[in-house]
């Protein structure tokens, strides 16, 4: 493979008359560690890195010899920041940066970066004009990242567990969903519930507070750890109505001695398993004869056809630091046949600066109304009703409006044997 196969062709650069503050804006704004410097014909004449800028905070050897006391005062060094940021780039840039061309072998570029101890290399043409940039991250994505499969549900949610309750405003969500769930379940004489894919246990705990006996189950051990932490703040009366276990959804009849009046799959939990039909069959073994299935899923048809894959974008105050805010972008695209790729990007604001924290993708089953209906009928659930929500993903009442294929954000299915 060549550099051309991995390099970024849209390159941020500065001109010779730029100031270091212009470089710093690009470094912070783009999340890079260095910026090329070019002349008015876009020929490469230098390169400025984070290390170059930080080095100006420290005294030169001559300055240290002339005034060792003040030159070792770190507070004085910090005070130089405004002066440093006003410097022209030609006072600090490397004037003979190491470069590669588009036909350079990819691993040779990696070797050069390793030897030169740099994280990015400018890519130039025969006339030394800047045509791209190649980074260690670019090489890693091409050589390694593209070979990796999408993450499994358990690993995906392990990563997401610390922020799971932030992506959605759970307080607002539960204020809409729990009254409807409680009424529906009591009307159907439900007393015991298994919450499959319970995440951090928000529904498990809320339903226990309403008097139900609830078992919360999730394949992510970290999600269950977060769920158990919640129980410490509740009374013994509520605590005794809840169990949490972290297990795969297989051989449930051998794993569990008890039988349940209802199973709930909230927040698209059923779409997050490899084989929803098989999972429903497993769950059916531990349900009583007149049991109820309640399945809530994202309306993927609307997301794909009308929203072009975009699901939602939310900004929340972070409990991890008083000064932090966190932003979450969720979107979908087509995956292997019958599946979608669910993508979650996380950003954090610290000291009024936004930083990209990471992106994870996992495969989810492309559940539709017709597929759920077929799966439920295969396990002898024939009394099936469909409801929709139009006030945003998981922010609406559950059973008050009919499902509309290209209007509802959420599909909620209620089925009974």
Describe the structure.
The chain is an alpha/beta fold. It has 2 domains: 145 residues, CBS-domain; 201 residues, Rossmann fold (3-Layer(aba) Sandwich), CATH 3.40.50.150. It has a 7-stranded mixed β-sheet, sandwiched between helices. The protein has a 4-stranded antiparallel β-sheet with strand order 11-12-13-14, with helices on one face. Helix 11 packs across helix 12 and helix 16 runs parallel beside helix 18. It is elongated and about 80 Å long. The chain starts with 13 loop residues before the first strand and ends with a strand. About 2% of the residues have low confidence.
Shape: elongated
Indicate the multimeric state. single chain
Rg of Cα set: 28 Å
**Amino-to-carboxy terminus distance:** 58 Å
* Low-pLDDT residue intervals, each spanning 5 or more residues: 60-66
* Percentage of β-strand residues: 25-35%
At the fold tier of CATH, the topology name of the largest domain is: Rossmann fold
- Strand tally is 16
- The residue fraction in helices comes out at 25-40%
Question: Structural class of the secondary structure composition?
Answer: alpha/beta
Mean pLDDT level: 86
The CATH H-level superfamily of the largest domain is: Vaccinia Virus protein VP39
Domain count: the total is: 2
Largest sheet: 7 strands, mixed
State the CATH architecture of the largest domain. 3-Layer(aba) Sandwich
